[in-house]
Amino acid sequence: MQLTSAQREAYARDGFLIFPGLVSPAEVAVLRGEVERLWDVEHEGTVREGSKRAPKSMFRLHEADGATASAPFRALSRSPRVLGVAQQLMGDDRLYLHHSKVNVKAAIEGSIWPWHQDFGAWRLDGIERPDMSTFMVMLDDATEISGCLYLLPGSHRWGRTDAYLDTSTAYRLWSVTPEDMKRRMADSPAPVPVAGRAGTCAIFHCNLMHASGHNLSHRDRWQAYFCFNTCANRPHDVPNPRPDHVRSRNWAPMEMMPDAVPPAAREPALAGAVPG
Ligand SMILES: O=C(O)CCC(=O)C(=O)O
User: Fold this and answer.
1) 212 lines ligand 1 (CB under 6 A)
2) Does residue 149 line the site of ligand 1, with CB under 6 A?
3) How far apart are CA 183 and CA 164, in angstroms?
4) Which atom of ligand 1 lies closest to the CA of 113?
5) Domain 5-233 belongs to what architecture?
6) In Å, how far from its chain's centre is CA 146?
7) For labelling alongside 202, which of 8, 102, 126, 208 has CA 20 to 30 A away?
8) Banded pLDDT at 260 (limits 50, 70, 90)
């Protein structure tokens, strides 16, 4: 999939691109089946919340090994639609995944994601430059009431904004203070809701401000994220590095795979297995 010069310009200006219908309904069904298969797997990379202990985030779906490995998610992450688009926008063919995850925002009970820049956390992983992008795939229809993602156009050009560790949800997140965001947003274009049908995708820069609110609908909201870094920008050593599922040590350049999501694995995942 070749991006147009208008798309490249829009990404440089706004910090994101949205692709309606990039993943087909049949592929979405396979990916959703994988989320269901991995739902109850106890893994250090699955963060749970709420009375039903539903996953808030399920990490490390893209590797070939480990308890949460998923061949369909792995294939999608290496497809021309995903890896190819990231390579074009990041200007580098040698990319790896810093992490992958599915965020489940459970109906009514799922928690929010406060305003943040992803690089606020990733720089603390020892990554030097904000040369990273995240590719998001909607696994069901996302609406404003179901807590869709919001992106603040052009905010990646602000550079780094000070972050604080917000511990108000099950996933502790380096976030931007409400005071900073109110001041900044007063002079910004309106946030863009990334809403639409399942299979809609978006890619955004690691310094782009983004957030999502409560899911007040009766349905969960599921979204997959592939966070790309260039191999040349791999993290340097830091004291007490975060675990592999969130700060990958697999820095080998990703190989492109055919542009299709294969059928799901039939076997249930091995509960309790430790990732390789
Ligand atoms: O899934 C969401 O609504 C937001 C996720 C997010 O911002 C993140 O994982 O950094």
Assistant:
1) yes
2) yes
3) 16
4) 4
5) Sandwich (2.60)
6) 17
7) 126
8) confident
